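Now for a sample.
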Amino acid sequence: MYLNKVLLYGNLTRDPEVRALPSGGQVVTFGLATNRSFKGKDGAQQEQTEFHNIVAFGRLAEVMGQYLKKGRPVYVEGRLQTRSWEADGQKKYRTEIVVDNFQFGADGGARGGSGAGGASRAAGPSEGEAPAGGGEEIQYPTEDINPEDIPF
């Protein structure tokens, strides 16, 4: 089995650019920056930034183009894809992340932090939010789980 999966959380480096495909669908492209902090050889704290090319199609493209803006945080799940083409007699390459799911970041987009309805998989209500449906809050048991009670 092979796996091609990318999980990124970062900030948009530019506003999403939405274009129409010949088939009538939509495609959106934008840049995403992620940061990594580490201690260098001298022991000083350093930060490294990576820039990623992001592309999404269909309903995801519409929603991302409508609600995402430069500087906003976003979580994307997708796969790596490398395209190649000829330009001026030279072969050019571009590696990008093709989005399967996304969620708005902490201060971006729709209240509730999830993407386009069924287009992204939200893990449930964020901390401090009421559960969907306006019902009462879920009551979890206060007793501890005994490992000996687990049947496997």
